[in-house]
Design brief:
mainly alpha, Arp2/3 complex 21 kDa subunit ARPC3, two-stranded antiparallel ribbon, 8 helices, globular, Substrate-specific component NikM of nickel ECF transporter / Additional substrate-specific component NikN of nickel ECF transporter, transmembrane, transport
């Protein structure tokens, strides 16, 4: 999914660079609302995990491999605005130190993987969580579905950008078939990894998972009186 130099024309690269800059600026403004004192270390841990996971590829068939995008995972764990910042840092480091994605395409890559994936996953997660029962056990499955959707959405937006400003000698119909076909498979790996990671954290510290906040707020609150028998439960 990392777009190399020269794959899109200059005007498209500049436009996505402007979108990326605006998105990161907005994320910087809104991220402070997503983190409390307990969750302050999480963005660094999430960025480190996504960075390491993106460096590992898994085979999907016919010599093609995929890797974690991490947008949905980061959005569920630390919130969408903070997730945009995490992914932007990861993509910038990968580009400058490992030549993973072109320098002139850094805005495109941040727009696709750091914004489209994050925002798309956040919307899917929020909608599903609004429609389904508020249970901790559903946080990870919903995150997995959001992760799968984010991969497909990101590939669709990439194809749209290529249709507008693509310069590589690849027919649009061929690119569309390849991108949607292979990313439909890559999305399965994204969903599995996201679901497992979120489930493991929710099982231990659900209070640190941004996507579990609405579930915890709807949970009955126990009122304990010193020396009293079993606690009474009142709906929050």
């Amino acid at each position: 999914m990392h777009v190399p130099d020269g794959f899109l024309d200059i005007s498209t690269s500049v436009a996505t660079g402007a979108v990326a800059a605006a998105g990161v600026g907005l994320a910087l403004h809104r991220a402070r609302r997503e983190l409390d004192d307990r969750a302050v270390p999480l963005p660094g841990l999430v960025a480190t995990f996504v960075f390491a996971a993106q460096m590992l590829n898994f085979p999907v068939g016919a010599g093609t491999s995929g890797h974690l995008l991490g947008g949905a995972l980061a959005a569920v764990l630390v919130g969408p605005a903070t997730a945009v910042l995490c992914l932007s840092v990861v993509l910038l480091v990968q580009c400058l130190l490992f030549a993973d994605g072109g320098v002139t395409a850094i805005g495109t890559n941040i727009t696709l993987m750091g914004m489209v994936a994050v925002v798309g996953a956040s919307v899917v997660f929020w909608v599903l969580q609004s429609l389904l029962p508020k249970r901790e056990g559903l946080v990870a499955p919903i995150a997995a579905v959001a992760a799968y959707a984010s991969v497909l959405l990101t590939s669709v937006v990439f194809v749209a950008l290529y249709a507008v400003g693509g310069t590589a000698p690849v027919p649009l119909d061929t690119l569309t078939t390849a991108m949607l076909g292979w990313h439909a498979l890559i999305g399965i790996g994204e969903a599995v990894i996201t679901g497992l990671v979120v489930a493991s954290i929710v099982a231990v510290r659900p209070d640190l998972v941004h996507g579990a906040r609405r579930v915890l707020k709807s949970r009955p609150v126990e009122i304990r009186t010193p020396g009293a028998p079993p606690a009474q439960e009142v709906a929050a």
